[in-house]
Amino acid sequence: MQTAPKLLAVAPTAMEAQEAEPDADVDAATPADPPAREEPATPEDPDAYKRSFVGLGIAWLAKHQNEDGSWGDGPALLEGQHLGRSGVTAMVLLAMLGAGYSHLSKDVYDGTNIGDSIRRALKWLLKDQHADGTFESGPGGLDQALLAYALSDAYGLTASGPLKEPAARALDALIRKQFPDGSWGPMATSAAALMALNSGELSELDIDAEVRTRALQYAGSCPHPGMIGARILMTKDKNSVESAVAALVEAPPAPYDYAGWLHASTGIFLADGVEGSRWKEWRRAMWQVTDQTHARDGSWPAGTESATIVRTSLAIQMLALPWRYPQK
Known about the structure:
By secondary structure, the chain is mainly alpha-helical. The protein has helices at 53-63, 85-98, 114-128, 141-158, 161-176, 187-202, 209-221, 226-235, 242-250, 258-272, 277-292, 305-319, 321-324; strands spanning 76-78, 81-83, 108-109, 112-113. Mean pLDDT is 88; it is low at 3-23 and 28-42.
Protein backbone atom coordinates (compact mmCIF):
# COMPACT_ATOMS: atom_id res chain seq x y z
CA MET A 1 0.00 0.00 0.00
CA GLN A 2 1.00 3.63 -0.36
CA THR A 3 2.91 5.45 2.34
CA ALA A 4 0.98 8.60 3.14
CA PRO A 5 2.63 11.94 3.86
CA LYS A 6 2.61 13.47 7.31
CA LEU A 7 1.32 17.02 7.54
CA LEU A 8 -1.17 17.45 10.34
CA ALA A 9 -2.86 15.09 12.75
CA VAL A 10 -5.57 12.76 11.46
CA ALA A 11 -6.50 10.07 13.94
CA PRO A 12 -8.55 7.17 12.51
CA THR A 13 -11.88 6.33 14.08
CA ALA A 14 -13.18 2.85 14.94
CA MET A 15 -15.56 1.67 12.22
CA GLU A 16 -17.41 -1.55 11.52
CA ALA A 17 -16.23 -3.88 8.76
CA GLN A 18 -18.28 -3.99 5.58
CA GLU A 19 -18.13 -5.64 2.16
CA ALA A 20 -16.91 -3.37 -0.65
CA GLU A 21 -20.18 -2.97 -2.54
CA PRO A 22 -20.40 -0.42 -5.40
CA ASP A 23 -22.68 1.81 -3.31
CA ALA A 24 -20.99 1.03 0.00
CA ASP A 25 -21.23 3.66 2.70
CA VAL A 26 -17.80 5.17 3.27
CA ASP A 27 -18.89 5.93 6.84
CA ALA A 28 -18.79 2.20 7.55
CA ALA A 29 -15.30 1.69 6.17
CA THR A 30 -12.75 -0.24 8.18
CA PRO A 31 -9.23 -0.47 6.76
CA ALA A 32 -8.59 -4.01 5.52
CA ASP A 33 -5.13 -3.60 7.01
CA PRO A 34 -3.92 -1.12 9.63
CA PRO A 35 -3.73 2.45 8.29
CA ALA A 36 -0.71 2.93 6.06
CA ARG A 37 0.79 5.69 8.16
CA GLU A 38 1.57 6.57 11.74
CA GLU A 39 -0.21 9.71 12.86
CA PRO A 40 1.48 12.49 14.83
CA ALA A 41 -0.21 13.83 17.93
CA THR A 42 -2.93 16.44 17.44
CA PRO A 43 -1.39 19.93 17.49
CA GLU A 44 -2.26 21.90 20.60
CA ASP A 45 -2.60 25.07 18.54
CA PRO A 46 -5.94 24.80 16.69
CA ASP A 47 -5.08 27.81 14.52
CA ALA A 48 -1.74 26.45 13.28
CA TYR A 49 -3.22 25.88 9.82
CA LYS A 50 -3.67 29.65 9.40
CA ARG A 51 0.10 30.06 9.19
CA SER A 52 0.31 27.77 6.15
CA PHE A 53 -0.81 28.46 2.58
CA VAL A 54 -1.67 24.76 2.36
CA GLY A 55 -3.75 24.81 5.53
CA LEU A 56 -5.58 28.00 4.54
CA GLY A 57 -6.25 26.56 1.09
CA ILE A 58 -7.62 23.32 2.52
CA ALA A 59 -9.90 25.29 4.85
CA TRP A 60 -11.15 27.44 1.95
CA LEU A 61 -11.90 24.38 -0.17
CA ALA A 62 -13.78 22.70 2.67
CA LYS A 63 -15.87 25.82 3.20
CA HIS A 64 -16.83 25.92 -0.49
CA GLN A 65 -18.01 22.31 -0.77
CA ASN A 66 -21.51 21.81 -2.16
CA GLU A 67 -24.23 20.42 0.10
CA ASP A 68 -24.21 17.12 -1.79
CA GLY A 69 -20.47 16.62 -1.20
CA SER A 70 -19.23 17.71 -4.62
CA TRP A 71 -17.33 20.86 -5.58
CA GLY A 72 -17.91 23.41 -8.32
CA ASP A 73 -20.62 25.67 -9.70
CA GLY A 74 -20.24 24.45 -13.27
CA PRO A 75 -17.61 23.19 -15.73
CA ALA A 76 -14.02 24.37 -15.46
CA LEU A 77 -11.10 24.35 -17.87
CA LEU A 78 -7.89 22.48 -17.12
CA GLU A 79 -5.16 22.56 -19.75
CA GLY A 80 -7.72 23.46 -22.38
CA GLN A 81 -10.12 20.65 -21.51
CA HIS A 82 -13.49 20.87 -19.81
CA LEU A 83 -13.89 19.25 -16.41
CA GLY A 84 -17.31 18.20 -15.16
CA ARG A 85 -18.35 18.43 -11.52
CA SER A 86 -16.83 15.05 -10.69
CA GLY A 87 -13.53 16.10 -12.29
CA VAL A 88 -13.49 19.31 -10.23
CA THR A 89 -14.23 17.24 -7.13
CA ALA A 90 -11.37 14.88 -7.98
CA MET A 91 -8.99 17.85 -8.16
CA VAL A 92 -9.93 18.86 -4.61
CA LEU A 93 -9.52 15.32 -3.33
CA LEU A 94 -6.07 15.06 -4.91
CA ALA A 95 -5.08 18.27 -3.13
CA MET A 96 -6.39 17.12 0.25
CA LEU A 97 -5.05 13.58 -0.02
CA GLY A 98 -1.68 14.83 -1.24
CA ALA A 99 -1.42 17.14 1.77
CA GLY A 100 -1.92 14.24 4.16
CA TYR A 101 -5.65 14.18 4.85
CA SER A 102 -8.16 11.36 4.37
CA HIS A 103 -11.75 10.54 5.25
CA LEU A 104 -10.36 9.37 8.62
CA SER A 105 -8.94 12.80 9.48
CA LYS A 106 -10.11 14.60 12.61
CA ASP A 107 -8.69 18.09 11.90
CA VAL A 108 -11.21 20.91 12.25
CA TYR A 109 -10.40 24.11 10.36
CA ASP A 110 -12.63 27.15 10.76
CA GLY A 111 -15.44 24.94 12.04
CA THR A 112 -15.19 22.34 9.26
CA ASN A 113 -13.99 18.78 9.87
CA ILE A 114 -11.67 17.96 6.96
CA GLY A 115 -12.21 14.21 7.29
CA ASP A 116 -15.98 14.71 7.06
CA SER A 117 -15.48 16.87 3.99
CA ILE A 118 -13.48 14.16 2.23
CA ARG A 119 -15.95 11.47 3.33
CA ARG A 120 -18.88 13.42 1.86
CA ALA A 121 -17.00 13.87 -1.41
CA LEU A 122 -16.20 10.18 -1.67
CA LYS A 123 -19.81 9.22 -0.96
CA TRP A 124 -20.96 11.59 -3.71
CA LEU A 125 -18.45 10.15 -6.18
CA LEU A 126 -19.55 6.59 -5.44
CA LYS A 127 -23.15 7.61 -6.16
CA ASP A 128 -22.06 9.38 -9.35
CA GLN A 129 -20.14 6.34 -10.62
CA HIS A 130 -21.78 4.01 -13.14
CA ALA A 131 -21.48 0.24 -12.97
CA ASP A 132 -18.89 0.34 -15.79
CA GLY A 133 -16.61 2.63 -13.77
CA THR A 134 -17.39 5.88 -15.60
CA PHE A 135 -19.03 8.89 -13.97
CA GLU A 136 -22.29 10.70 -14.69
CA SER A 137 -20.90 14.17 -13.90
CA GLY A 138 -17.52 13.71 -15.58
CA PRO A 139 -17.77 12.02 -18.98
CA GLY A 140 -14.50 13.34 -20.40
CA GLY A 141 -11.21 11.48 -20.59
CA LEU A 142 -9.42 13.91 -18.27
CA ASP A 143 -12.26 13.60 -15.76
CA GLN A 144 -11.88 9.81 -15.80
CA ALA A 145 -8.11 9.96 -15.33
CA LEU A 146 -8.35 12.36 -12.39
CA LEU A 147 -11.15 10.35 -10.79
CA ALA A 148 -9.27 7.07 -11.11
CA TYR A 149 -6.22 8.80 -9.62
CA ALA A 150 -8.19 10.27 -6.69
CA LEU A 151 -10.08 7.08 -5.82
CA SER A 152 -6.90 4.98 -6.05
CA ASP A 153 -5.16 7.42 -3.72
CA ALA A 154 -8.09 7.44 -1.28
CA TYR A 155 -8.09 3.64 -1.15
CA GLY A 156 -4.31 3.29 -1.04
CA LEU A 157 -3.83 5.77 1.78
CA THR A 158 -6.39 4.14 4.09
CA ALA A 159 -7.01 0.59 2.79
CA SER A 160 -10.73 1.21 3.37
CA GLY A 161 -12.55 -1.78 1.92
CA PRO A 162 -15.57 0.05 0.42
CA LEU A 163 -13.23 2.13 -1.75
CA LYS A 164 -11.37 -0.77 -3.36
CA GLU A 165 -13.94 -1.86 -5.94
CA PRO A 166 -14.90 1.69 -7.03
CA ALA A 167 -11.21 2.54 -7.44
CA ALA A 168 -10.61 -0.64 -9.45
CA ARG A 169 -13.64 0.02 -11.67
CA ALA A 170 -12.53 3.62 -12.29
CA LEU A 171 -9.11 2.35 -13.34
CA ASP A 172 -10.63 -0.32 -15.58
CA ALA A 173 -12.79 2.31 -17.30
CA LEU A 174 -9.70 4.48 -17.79
CA ILE A 175 -7.72 1.58 -19.22
CA ARG A 176 -10.48 0.88 -21.74
CA LYS A 177 -10.01 4.41 -23.07
CA GLN A 178 -6.31 3.87 -23.89
CA PHE A 179 -5.40 4.38 -27.56
CA PRO A 180 -3.28 1.84 -29.50
CA ASP A 181 -0.28 4.19 -29.31
CA GLY A 182 -0.38 4.02 -25.50
CA SER A 183 -1.88 7.50 -25.03
CA TRP A 184 -5.27 8.67 -23.87
CA GLY A 185 -5.58 11.23 -26.63
CA PRO A 186 -4.65 14.73 -25.35
CA MET A 187 -1.27 14.93 -23.65
CA ALA A 188 -2.75 16.31 -20.42
CA THR A 189 -5.16 13.38 -20.19
CA SER A 190 -2.33 10.93 -20.86
CA ALA A 191 -0.16 12.47 -18.14
CA ALA A 192 -3.02 12.23 -15.62
CA ALA A 193 -3.71 8.65 -16.71
CA LEU A 194 -0.10 7.63 -15.98
CA MET A 195 -0.36 9.15 -12.50
CA ALA A 196 -3.55 7.15 -11.99
CA LEU A 197 -1.83 3.95 -13.11
CA ASN A 198 1.02 4.61 -10.70
CA SER A 199 -1.41 5.24 -7.85
CA GLY A 200 -3.23 2.03 -8.73
CA GLU A 201 0.00 0.05 -8.63
CA LEU A 202 0.97 1.53 -5.25
CA SER A 203 -2.51 0.68 -3.99
CA GLU A 204 -2.04 -2.93 -5.15
CA LEU A 205 -4.83 -2.75 -7.72
CA ASP A 206 -4.49 -4.84 -10.87
CA ILE A 207 -2.88 -3.06 -13.82
CA ASP A 208 -2.39 -5.02 -17.04
CA ALA A 209 1.30 -5.22 -17.94
CA GLU A 210 0.67 -4.43 -21.61
CA VAL A 211 -1.27 -1.29 -20.69
CA ARG A 212 1.61 -0.17 -18.52
CA THR A 213 4.21 -0.91 -21.21
CA ARG A 214 2.31 0.97 -23.93
CA ALA A 215 1.76 3.92 -21.61
CA LEU A 216 5.44 4.21 -20.74
CA GLN A 217 6.47 3.88 -24.38
CA TYR A 218 4.19 6.77 -25.26
CA ALA A 219 5.41 8.79 -22.27
CA GLY A 220 9.00 8.43 -23.45
CA SER A 221 8.21 10.34 -26.64
CA CYS A 222 5.67 12.82 -25.25
CA PRO A 223 6.94 16.35 -24.49
CA HIS A 224 4.29 17.09 -21.85
CA PRO A 225 6.03 18.06 -18.56
CA GLY A 226 3.72 15.79 -16.58
CA MET A 227 5.38 12.77 -18.13
CA ILE A 228 8.65 13.42 -16.30
CA GLY A 229 7.30 12.76 -12.82
CA ALA A 230 5.14 9.88 -14.03
CA ARG A 231 8.11 8.16 -15.66
CA ILE A 232 10.26 8.54 -12.54
CA LEU A 233 7.49 7.15 -10.33
CA MET A 234 6.77 4.18 -12.57
CA THR A 235 10.31 3.24 -13.61
CA LYS A 236 12.51 4.64 -10.78
CA ASP A 237 14.83 5.81 -13.59
CA LYS A 238 15.93 9.43 -13.22
CA ASN A 239 18.73 9.33 -15.79
CA SER A 240 16.40 8.92 -18.76
CA VAL A 241 14.58 12.19 -17.97
CA GLU A 242 17.63 14.32 -17.15
CA SER A 243 17.58 16.31 -20.39
CA ALA A 244 13.86 17.02 -19.98
CA VAL A 245 14.41 18.19 -16.38
CA ALA A 246 17.23 20.49 -17.48
CA ALA A 247 14.97 21.97 -20.15
CA LEU A 248 12.26 22.70 -17.57
CA VAL A 249 14.72 24.47 -15.30
CA GLU A 250 15.83 26.68 -18.19
CA ALA A 251 12.29 27.46 -19.41
CA PRO A 252 9.71 27.47 -16.59
CA PRO A 253 5.99 27.79 -17.35
CA ALA A 254 4.23 31.15 -17.54
CA PRO A 255 3.26 32.47 -14.08
CA TYR A 256 -0.47 31.96 -14.73
CA ASP A 257 -0.02 28.32 -15.86
CA TYR A 258 -0.56 26.56 -12.54
CA ALA A 259 -1.03 23.17 -14.18
CA GLY A 260 2.30 23.60 -15.93
CA TRP A 261 3.94 24.61 -12.66
CA LEU A 262 2.53 21.54 -10.90
CA HIS A 263 3.79 19.19 -13.62
CA ALA A 264 7.22 20.81 -13.78
CA SER A 265 7.58 21.05 -10.00
CA THR A 266 6.68 17.38 -9.58
CA GLY A 267 9.25 16.30 -12.14
CA ILE A 268 12.04 18.46 -10.74
CA PHE A 269 11.30 17.46 -7.14
CA LEU A 270 11.31 13.75 -7.96
CA ALA A 271 14.43 14.06 -10.09
CA ASP A 272 16.46 16.28 -7.77
CA GLY A 273 15.24 15.37 -4.29
CA VAL A 274 14.35 17.63 -1.40
CA GLU A 275 18.02 18.60 -0.87
CA GLY A 276 18.84 19.06 -4.55
CA SER A 277 20.18 22.45 -5.61
CA ARG A 278 17.89 22.67 -8.64
CA TRP A 279 14.85 21.88 -6.54
CA LYS A 280 15.78 24.47 -3.90
CA GLU A 281 16.16 27.14 -6.56
CA TRP A 282 12.95 26.06 -8.30
CA ARG A 283 11.05 26.01 -5.02
CA ARG A 284 11.84 29.69 -4.46
CA ALA A 285 10.41 30.54 -7.88
CA MET A 286 7.39 28.31 -7.22
CA TRP A 287 6.68 30.10 -3.97
CA GLN A 288 6.93 33.46 -5.71
CA VAL A 289 4.38 32.36 -8.31
CA THR A 290 1.91 31.08 -5.73
CA ASP A 291 2.40 34.09 -3.45
CA GLN A 292 1.59 36.60 -6.20
CA THR A 293 -2.01 35.47 -6.65
CA HIS A 294 -2.81 34.06 -3.20
CA ALA A 295 -5.86 35.75 -1.66
CA ARG A 296 -6.31 36.56 2.02
CA ASP A 297 -9.20 34.09 2.24
CA GLY A 298 -6.85 31.20 1.40
CA SER A 299 -7.83 30.72 -2.25
CA TRP A 300 -6.10 31.37 -5.56
CA PRO A 301 -8.81 33.29 -7.50
CA ALA A 302 -9.42 32.47 -11.15
CA GLY A 303 -12.81 33.94 -12.10
CA THR A 304 -15.65 31.49 -11.53
CA GLU A 305 -15.92 29.42 -8.37
CA SER A 306 -15.11 26.21 -10.27
CA ALA A 307 -12.02 27.80 -11.84
CA THR A 308 -10.91 29.11 -8.43
CA ILE A 309 -11.40 25.65 -6.91
CA VAL A 310 -9.25 24.08 -9.64
CA ARG A 311 -6.48 26.68 -9.34
CA THR A 312 -6.49 26.44 -5.54
CA SER A 313 -6.23 22.66 -5.79
CA LEU A 314 -3.29 22.95 -8.20
CA ALA A 315 -1.49 25.39 -5.89
CA ILE A 316 -1.96 23.13 -2.86
CA GLN A 317 -0.66 20.12 -4.78
CA MET A 318 2.44 22.11 -5.72
CA LEU A 319 3.16 23.31 -2.21
CA ALA A 320 2.49 19.87 -0.68
CA LEU A 321 4.88 17.92 -2.94
CA PRO A 322 7.33 17.12 -0.09
CA TRP A 323 4.44 15.55 1.84
CA ARG A 324 2.99 13.63 -1.10
CA TYR A 325 6.42 12.19 -1.95
CA PRO A 326 8.35 11.99 1.35
CA GLN A 327 12.02 11.18 0.91
CA LYS A 328 14.33 9.53 3.39
